[in-house]
Each structure stands twice: as C-alpha cells, then as structure tokens.
Design a protein that fits this description.
It holds the Pfam family Abhydrolase_1. By secondary structure, the chain is of the alpha/beta class. It has two domains: 209 residues, Rossmann fold (3-Layer(aba) Sandwich); 90 residues, no CATH class. It is built from eleven helices and nine strands.
Length: 317
C-alpha cells in the first residue's frame, strides 16, 4: 500500500493511503488524525481534502478517512467503469469501509456525507446494509433525484425540468468532443457553456450573499483566462451529469432498513433539495432527527462554516 504525505504541521499527521477496490483500482484515501476512525464523503466536483479546515481541530480525538471518488480530487485520473457512477462509488466505498474496519479492528464507524457523497451512502445502504455504519450524518441530500407523481422533492424542485433541459443541451454539445482529452482544445464557445453551467450549479448551491460573492470570484473566467484554462475533470463531470439525468435514482425503499441513528442536516434555503421534502425523509427513517440551518443553502460548510463544525463535533461525540 503506497503512502503519500501532504505538507502540514507535524502535529497534524496526514497521509494518503491507496486501497484496492473493484477492477484492481488503487483508490486514494486521505487520512489524518489519531483516535476513533471516522469517514467523510465529499460532494460532486469537490476534493476530499476540502474537509480539512473543519476537521483539523478534531484530529486529536479522531482519525478521519477521506476517500476521493473516481474522477475527482486525488482520484481525478481514475476512470469510471460503469455508467451508473453512484453504484460504482458505493461499491468502492464498501471496500474502503471493510478495509478500515479490518485494519482498525472495529465493527462499524460513523460516517458523514454531503450532497453526492450522501447519495452514494443511500446507494450503499441499499446494496450493503447498515451493519458497518454506527451512525450517519446526511448533509442536505435527498435519496430521490427525479420528481415523480408522488414526489416533488427531487433535485432543483419545481425548477427541475428547466434546469435538466439546460444540462441536457450542454451534454449534447459536448458528446462530439468526448474523445478530446484537453479542455484547452475545445471550441471557445463550448468551454464557455461548460463553465457557465458549472458556475450556475455552484451559485444555486449557496444562499448567503457572502457565499455567492465568493463563488462568483472563484468561478469567474475572463476570455483570456478561459482560453488557457485546463479543466482536467470536465469529461468526468459531464459523464456524471449524464447519469443523473438518465438514471431514476430513488432509494426511498431502503429508508425503513436504516435503523442506525441518523442526523439529517438541512439547509433551510437549499435550492437543490426542498427542506420540506427532506424532512419527509427524516420521518421515514426509524431513528432519525433533523437539524435545520435557517440561513444555509445546499452547501452547508460554505454558508454556515462555524455551525457546520459545531454540528459535526456534536455528531461525533
């Protein structure tokens, strides 16, 4: 098992381990801290190491395992082998969990997951059960993506159809360029479309004015900068988006079996998943409570960083 290290102060012991998952892939997992093992799963487009500011103060009590999903972060060069990326991620995470439980000699561990990472956990519960998870923190994610006759709480709520049509248009435009490895080789107009949609998604994920201002600064690409922008994950993002649109993800059937303690952390101003429909999921779970942050959108750590840290700390204790 290979190990890499990140340059952090010595009192923050950090390493990256590589765990063998399906098809022989060595999946990178960032590990930091000493103590009880905890796993956290990141969001779409996120690098698992972006959790570090929130967990560094807790590394004296806990050891955090931060897997990088295929195509993102330290795993950006690892390809998907299935169109259903959520199921493939769940298969990978199952093997990561088994590795942690075996090496740390524990029967189960707490898991916190946000957005796409939380959707992966709903898939994990469906196929692998809950015996390896002692408690679960679900951060602003519904187990249902598409609106249906009995469910209007899917991704983007009543704006779903319009936004899904926008995403489909971008996917259709990028398909002829699926063989192009470098983002810099795409037509400029297509690069602008791709980054504009990503920017829209990011802006919809936050609620507070300061968060929106930060997103606008971080995602701004003038023509000159965009011309030379080497977007290494654009193909992977488009592939995931295509699966989101095509596969009717609905994991409600597993809720009755998730008997472990669950905390559902909900952004009251989430534009991705309607808080009222998220609360319906909480009521469907046998042993769940919800915490609603009145000023937060979907991206809770960005909108409410201090509250997020306190809630995470309480969840672990």
């Amino acid at each position: 098992m290979k190990i890499n290290r990140l340059s952090l102060p010595t009192h923050y012991p950090f390493k990256t381990i590589y765990i063998a998952v399906a098809d022989g892939t060595q999946l990178p997992v960032s590990v930091i801290g000493n103590g009880q093992p905890i796993m956290m799963l990141h969001a779409y487009g996120m690098d698992a190491r972006e959790f570090l500011p929130f967990i560094l103060p807790l590394t004296g009590q806990y050891q955090f395992y931060l897997p990088h999903f295929r195509g993102f972060g330290a795993a950006k060069d690892i390809k998907l082998t299935q169109f259903d990326f959520v199921r493939e991620y769940a298969d990978d995470i199952n093997l990561v969990i088994e590795h942690i439980c075996l090496t740390r000699k524990v029967e189960s561990l707490p898991i916190a997951a946000i957005s796409m990472g939380a959707l992966v956990m709903w898939s994990y519960f469906t196929y692998f059960g809950v015996s390896r998870v002692s408690r679960y923190l679900n951060i602003d994610q519904s187990p249902v993506i598409h609106n249906q006759s009995d469910w209007d709480g899917g991704l983007f709520g009543d704006r779903q159809q319009a936004l899904f049509e926008t995403f489909q248009e971008i996917i259709d435009k990028t398909l002829p360029y699926a063989h192009v490895e470098r983002f810099t080789h795409l037509p400029f107009s297509l690069k602008r479309c791709v980054t504009d949609v990503e920017r829209l998604f990011s802006l919809l994920s936050v609620s507070r004015p300061r968060s929106k201002a930060l997103v606008k600064i971080l995602t701004h690409q003038n023509d000159h900068k965009l011309a030379f922008y080497d977007h290494s994950t654009w193909q992977h993002k488009m592939r995931c988006l295509q699966a989101y649109l095509a596969i009717p993800y609905d994991f409600r059937s597993v809720t009755a079996d998730v008997t472990i303690p669950v905390v559902s952390l909900i952004g009251a101003k989430s534009e991705l998943y309607d808080p009222k429909w998220q609360q319906k999921i909480t009521k469907m779970l046998p042993n769940a409570t919800d915490i609603i942050l009145p000023h937060s959108g979907h991206a809770v750590p960005i909108d409410e960083p201090i509250r997020f840290f306190k809630i995470l700390k309480e969840f672990l204790q």
